[in-house]
C-alpha cells in the first residue's frame, strides 16, 4: 500500500522529495509521541488497558503488525529487481540488515511470547500502519542511495554503522530471551530481570533496539534512516523509563545503581 502511495507521489514530486516529506512527518510523529509519553504509557504489554478497542491476542498482534516491515521491502525489491541487482553490495547489505531484524520480529519473536497480554486494536493498527510506511520508506531510501563506496571515510562510516547495528541486534535479542525465560519461571508474576546488560539498565532490550537503528542510520547516511532512529528513540526511550519506574515501585530490593536506559547515566 505504502509503495503504491509513494509511486503516486512520485508523479507530483520526485521520489527523493516524497521520501524527505514522509521522513519529516515521521520525525514530527516521534516527537509528538515523546511528549505524550511523558504523561501516559503506551497501552500495550504490561500497560495494556481497556478503552483502546477490542483486544488482539499478543502473538497474533506482534506477527501481523511487524509483518509489513518484512513483506513490503521484499515486494519493492522484487518489483525493481533489475535496479536492485545493479546496486552496490553495501546497499544490498543494508536492505539485508533491515530484513534480518524484521524476520526475527515477525517470525521468531512472537513464538517466544509467554502469556503476553492482548494488545488493544487501536495501537495494533497504528503499529501495522507505521511498519507498512517505514518498510517502504527505508527500502526506497536505500535503493535511491545507489552509492558505490570508494573512499576510506564513507567506508569506515558504513562498517562502523553495521557493527553498531549487529551489536544492537545481539543486545536486543539476548535481552528478549532473558525476559522470556523470566516469564517461564515467574508463573504469571513479574520478577526482577538479571544478567547481561540488565545488571546496568532496566530497558536492556530497548537499548539494543535503539543502538540498532542508530547504527543503521550511520551506515545508510540518509534522511529516512535518521528519521527512523529518531522515531525509535522517541517511542521506546520513554518506555524504558516507564519500566524502570514500574520495577522500582514494585520491588523494594530493586538494585539502586541500575539505570533506566543508558548505563551509569540515565
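^ Assign residues to that structure.
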Amino acid at each position: 500500500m505504502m509503495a503504491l502511495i509513494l509511486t503516486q507521489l512520485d508523479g507530483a514530486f520526485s521520489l527523493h522529495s516524497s521520501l524527505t516529506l514522509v521522513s519529516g512527518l515521521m520525525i514530527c510523529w516521534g516527537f509528538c509521541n515523546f511528549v505524550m509519553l511523558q504523561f501516559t504509557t503506551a497501552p500495550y504489554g504490561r500497560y495494556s488497558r481497556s478503552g483502546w478497542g477490542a483486544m488482539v491476542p499478543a502473538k497474533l498482534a506482534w506477527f501481523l503488525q511487524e509483518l509489513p516491515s518484512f513483506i513490503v521491502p521484499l515486494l519493492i525489491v522484487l518489483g525493481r529487481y533489475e535496479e536492485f541487482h545493479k546496486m552496490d553490495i553495501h546497499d544490498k547489505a543494508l536492505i539485508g540488515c533491515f530484513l534480518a531484524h524484521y524476520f526475527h520480529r515477525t517470525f521468531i519473536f512472537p513464538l517466544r511470547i509467554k502469556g503476553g497480554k492482548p494488545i488493544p486494536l487501536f495501537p495494533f493498527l497504528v503499529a501495522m500502519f507505521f511498519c507498512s510506511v517505514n518498510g517502504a520508506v527505508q527500502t526506497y531510501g536505500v535503493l535511491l542511495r545507489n552509492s558505490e563506496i570508494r573512499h576510506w571515510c564513507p567506508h569506515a562510516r558504513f562498517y562502523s554503522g553495521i557493527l553498531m547495528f549487529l551489536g544492537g541486534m545481539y543486545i536486543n535479542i539476548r535481552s528478549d530471551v532473558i525476559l522470556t525465560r523470566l516469564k517461564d519461571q515467574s508463573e504469571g508474576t513479574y520478577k526482577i530481570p538479571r544478567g547481561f546488560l540488565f545488571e546496568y539498565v532496566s530497558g536492556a532490550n530497548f537499548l539494543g533496539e535503539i543502538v540498532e537503528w542508530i547504527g543503521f542510520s550511520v551506515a545508510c547516511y540518509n534522511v529516512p534512516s535518521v528519521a527512523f532512529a529518531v522515531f525509535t528513540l522517541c517511542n521506546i526511550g520513554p518506555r524504558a523509563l516507564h519500566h524502570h519506574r514500574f520495577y522500582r515501585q514494585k520491588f523494594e530490593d530493586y538494585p539502586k545503581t541500575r539505570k533506566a536506559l543508558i548505563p551509569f547515566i540515565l
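The chain has a mean pLDDT of 89.
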